């Protein structure tokens, strides 16, 4: 019985001694994505594209309304032309609306992938520079929304701000270099 106890204690205390020097960090990915300047610029660009497409759609809708007003006073031949054109325009409007949704979703996903890759590289850089052995994400998207992967951490383990600062400084430098060229 004492042999088993000795082995048990050796495993417990020996194992904990192995990890005593393990430096672990955590990163709040969503906080970084929300506050990363590049994310904001990409989203701003996407919203501008969407607004332009929505303006085009509104112009088509206005043309249909104008055609409907003209329809009331037009003769039979012209009514047929107006009806045909209005039908085509309504179909075009629906197609454009679907395309805007697809554009937004596809571009948003593409932009998010770019930002997440930047985040991964920055996290690795900070982790290496500050001698972290392991870095975990605080939360990740899951089937029920955001799911916790880390339920508790000391504030000193959170490297989110360091990663965010690194990303924003690097983004500003890249923009400055583009302006100088």
Describe the structure.
The chain is mainly α. The protein has one domain. It is built from 5 helices and 4 strands; from the N terminus they run H-E-H-H-H-E-E-E-H. The chain has helices spanning 2-18, 29-35, 37-73, 76-129, 160-180, and strands at residues 24-27, 134-137, 139-142, 145-148. The strands form 2 sheets. Strands 1-2 form a two-stranded parallel sheet. Strands 3-4 form a two-stranded antiparallel ribbon. Helix 2 (29-35) packs parallel to helix 5 (160-180) and helix 4 (76-129) crosses helix 5. The longest helix has 54 residues, at 76-129. It starts with a helix and ends with a helix. Residues 7-12 have low confidence and may be disordered.
What's the short story on this structure?
A hairpin with a 2-residue loop joins β3 (about 140) and β4 (about 145-150). The longest helix has about 55 residues, at about 75-130.
